[in-house]
Every structure is written in structure tokens, then in C-alpha cells.
Amino acid sequence: MTTSSTAPVAGSLPPAPDAKIAMGWMHTARFLTTAAQLHHLPPIHVPEIAFVGRSNAGKSTCINTLTQQKQLAFASKRPGRTQHINLFSLGKHGVTDAVLADLPGYGYAKVSRSDKVRWQQVMVNYLVSRPGLTGIVLLCDPRLGLTELDEALLEVLRPRVEEGLKFLIVLTKADKLTRSEQAKILSITRLNAAGGEVMMFSALKKQGVDEVAQLLWQWAHPEQAAVAAAGALSDAAGAADASTPDADEDFEQN
Ligand code: GDP
What we know:
Blueprint: H1 19-27, E1 30-35, E2 48-53, H2 59-67, E3 85-90, E4 98-102, H3 113-129, E5 133-140, H4 148-162, E6 166-171, H5 179-191, E7 197-200, H6 209-220, H7 222-243, H8 247-253
């Protein structure tokens, strides 16, 4: 479905699951609840992954593309819902094993200054204090790069990422850039990613979709991912044993 140029950079995570498994899991997303204030959010006892970004960065389109549902995240754009945190459950057979949190886009020009400040505060509180928060996906339009608000958010996140919070910057609308522009913005953003990962993404060209889904699956299933890694390691060791000539045989042949 996607190109390999967006594969996760080498890091601490074990090998990704099959893309079909990750995409099937993403497709189970269903609306859970919406809340205007942090303390109205229900406690969640499974990994929670938050999507944040400037208004118009392509966050709703990204969530809809990952979940293969046309309207899921656009529900949060209905009047009255734009300043809510929307939660979506994920998990096969109706059993929730992770939650996606869609946070309101920031920097929207038509919002009053007081509303902007209030929302930035809610977001900062959420990012700093939400129990069970496992990972953050920051959506960014690569033609704008990381804006001042994105940088401010990165500063808030940095200590939490250092403590182990997973972090991914998704550079959206990749189809609007040439391959060399993509490579350039990828390396620049990686330098500023506070230790997180960076991937290119295009909803239009379906670029990076599998890779993002696979990474989120890994975040939400660390134990299964570790078992898969152990399996892959022992397979690799077996293959190496089979292909390495036995030392004695070598000696006799010489
Ligand atoms: P949000 O405000 O962050 O939720 O952004 P949206 O998902 O509503 O997207 C903002 C605009 O960018 C819309 O006009 C989308 O059609 C457009 N857009 C989003 N993703 C892509 C993409 O992958 N490629 C292109 N060309 N346009 C995109």
C-alpha cells in the first residue's frame, strides 16, 4: 500500500507487525466519548495515543485514512465539537485494547484569543497529566514546517519523551512535495523531533499509512511486539546457522 521510504527509523522498538494486522486493528476504531474539559474524560485503562496539531495540518484526514473511515474524525469538526477532546476505542471483537484521542487543532485564526489560551492550557494539562497516555502523534504540514506553536508543544513534551512517552511527527500532504523536498524536510524535522520518530504521510497517495499504523500498533501492544521480536530473532539465528558452513567441514574441505 505504501512506499518503504517512510519506514520507521531504527530505534528502540521491535519489528513491526504485518501491515494487514495493524490496518485491521486501526479499522476497528469507534467513537467512545467527547469532553470539553479534562476532568470530564473517563479514566482509561489501556494505552491512549493522542493526535495533536495545528488546525488544517491534516489531522482529521490522517485519522480517517488510518482508520479507513470517511467520517470518524470529521465528527469532531461539527460546530460545537471543535473544542472538544474526542476519544475513539480500538480493538478487535469489541474489546478495547487502546484509545485514540483527537485533540482540538490549535492556531485557528478565527478563534478568539481567550479561547486560544484556554485551549492551549487544556492541551498542555492533558499532555502533562493524562494518566495512561502512551504516545503522541504530532501532525505537521511540511510546507510550513514546525511552527512556533508546534515548537512550544515540543518543549512541553520533551521531558515526557525522555521519560519514555512515545512520540511521532507525521509530515502530512507529502504528495505536495517532490521526493527530494521530502528527504530534506524529513532530515530537518528529525533533528528537531525531541528524540521521537518522523514519517512522511499522504492521505491522497496512501503514502506512509501502513508504517504509521504499524508503529501505533507497536506502541499499544508492547508485549506482543516483544514476543514477535523474539520470534524474528530466533528465526534469524536459525537462518544464520543454516547458511554458515560448519567450521569442521570447512577445515576438511581445505
Ligand atoms: P485538520 O484541521 O488538521 O483536521 O485538517 P484536515 O484533515 O481537515 O485537512 C486540511 C486540508 O488539507 C483539507 O483541505 C484536506 O483535504 C487537505 N489534506 C489533508 N491531507 C491531505 C493529503 O494527504 N494530501 C493533500 N493534497 N491534501 C490533504
